Amino acid sequence: MELEDSRADPGREDDRTSALVERLFQDAVGALELYTIYLGERLGLYRALAEGGSATSAELAERTGTAERYVREWLEHHASSGLIEVDDAPAEPLARRYRLPPEHIPVLADSNDVRYAAYKGVDIVRAGRPLPLLVEAFRTGGAPAPLPSEPEDEGGRDYNRARFINLLGKEWLPGITDVDRRLRAEPAARVADVACGTGWSSIAMAQGYPRITVDGFDLDEGAIAVAQQHAEEAGVGDRVTFSVADATAPGVSDQYDLVTIFEALLDMSRPVEALRAARTMVFPGGSVVVAEELVQEEFTAPASDLDRYYYGWSVVSCLPGAMGDPQTAATGAVMRPSTLRRYAIEAGFRDVEVLPIETDYWRFYRMIP
Ligand SMILES: C[S@@+](CC[C@H](N)C(=O)[O-])C[C@H]1O[C@@H](n2cnc3c(N)ncnc32)[C@H](O)[C@@H]1O
Q1: Among 263, 269, 281, 328, which residue has the most ligand 1 atoms within 8 Å of its CB, making it the best to mutate?
Q2: Tens of pLDDT, residues 89-104
Q3: Which has the closest alpha carbon to 144: 127, 119, 122?
Q4: Cβ–Cβ < 8 Å for 188, 299
Q5: What is the pTM of this model?
């Protein structure tokens, strides 16, 4: 193997090399932390600490139906990492009392809070499962073979739930004046929520606008089944319906005042066809609103942390998910505004408008007919 000559400036090389070693060590600390967060989330350890207050390892094990020795190791890890606190750290491990600082409760224990991030542990574990199959997919160029089985109800598909419930019908759509006006007006507006996943965006729109009806579509049968259940539980089951349908051929046209696509075009193998279908689904004068990742306008290296984050998801999950279709656009998670504009124009729109809705993670677009 021919390596670049590092002897020209050995001091600089040593610095860069040590920095990289340190960086990978810190990455491993972070990865392991997310695995332990997966366990805390799955086992209800955070919720038990938040609701029941401080606990010894035995008390927390008792509250959560878990084994004390495992829980003790988890608590010691979390306290040593600063994720939880330990009261005065007595020398006797079984006597130590641990608590969740109040500032950490929204992030680790309250899934209704927009700052809730414990799902990241779940997402990272789910994303890791197909990696051995992805090695082979890199060689063949296709999609990774499906996993033989995955744990049911891991909650990972609800990652956008808190955002939708707290912001979609309360801030984001009210921020688009003409859309907001139409959704409040008579006759009751009809909304199509394309690639709605487990339905939280559809539910949040119905909650924010008590007159409207929403039809949610997604290819994923499992997601659609739980979406209907979520809608009933949220009390909007009479105005929100869900069905399994491909965004590229939903089988409806000219029926909607608003068509939304949230964080899903990038996952689709045929985004142009999906946009073309969305164009035929709206009444004249209706709107197609899309939200996708807030990536930089251009490729840069090194890039922002957000671009790094979305590239990470792209490599391990979003791009592979779209590679099974021989006609795939192979977009990946880093779909820049120029790419979306190109897709929109190919789909028959005149242009794309970036909407003035500020978030740290998404950019909102409206397709201009
Ligand atoms: C990242 S998820 C977003 C789900 C939902 N919009 C949300 O924000 O929670 C992307 C979704 O796109 C769906 N999807 C991908 N390709 C699709 C297609 N051709 N037609 C319908 N849904 C599709 C997937 O099943 C998945 O639910």
Answers
A1: 263
A2: 778 999 999 999 999 9
A3: 127
A4: no
A5: 0.93
